[in-house]
Amino acid sequence: MMKRVQELEMEAVGLTDHGNMYGAVEFYKAAKKAGIKPIIGMETYVAHGTRHSRDHVEDRKRYHLTLLVKNETGYKNLIQLSTKAHLEGFYYKPRIDRELLEKHHEGLMCLSGCFSSELARLAKNNQFEEGKTLALWYKDLFGDDYYLEIQPHTPEFHDFIFGFHKKPVFLLSQHKTRTIYDVMTNQRTKFYSRFQPANNLIKKIGFLLRIMTDRFDQAKKWLNFLNTFLRQLRTR
Fold it and tell me: Left, alpha or beta for 112 (phi > 0: left; psi -120 to 50: alpha)?
């Protein structure tokens, strides 16, 4: 990774794995050794409601949110978020919620997220007022460390991402003390084109695992129903 970063003449690089910080220490050491500024982060999964809920339908919904460490306090808070996401919020994925963000947001920068974020979902449904309310909630929490994220590398999402950001930024700019700025990002899951086949294979495996999980849940519900039905028959 650091070799590629040096080839691109980058002075800093961040690591934001989905839902965990497993590579943070190794990444930090490698970056320091290479003379590159490391930015530790995590692309979190935010629960649709509370992290404690386990509803099969509603809690399959979750949203991406990017958090970046600013200082030692932020690093400790990100550890707390990652840990509690696994111990308290795990349901298909390790999830945090707004309650945890309110407790552990200090020292962190927050990007609104990719096209799988709550903000982008609202944009896709043309829910601009709801999007503005959501953005202002994060703005009030993170202050100047909250940014609206734009990713231009996915053409199929350009229209609603740019259309959404353009309108809320204009609306939010009316709140002079609550202006929210854009940040341009580019999601990369590989450094070289030769890694594309492996990346595609990982995505296909993930897709198959989701299908298997759904089938397992359906079978479990059917077996529970059958077991209840048989118990009722025995009591008659």
Answer: alpha
pLDDT at 9 over 50: yes
pLDDT tens string 169-212 = 444 444 444 567 777 776 665 555 666 676 666 666 766 766 66
C-alpha span between 130 and 212 (Å, rounded): 34
* Within-domain flag for 142: no
> pLDDT at residue 40 above 80?
yes
Residue 122 burial by Cβ neighbours in a 10 Å radius (0-12, 13-18, 19+):
buried
Report the pLDDT averaged over residues 34-56. Answer: 94
Q: Is residue 26 part of a domain?
A: no
The residue range of the domain holding 220 is 196-236
Contacts of 121 by beta carbon, 8 Å cutoff, 6+ apart: 63
Question: What span, in angstroms and rounded, lies between the C-alpha atoms of 190 and 22?
Answer: 18
Residue 129 lies in a domain: no
Number of domains in the chain: 1
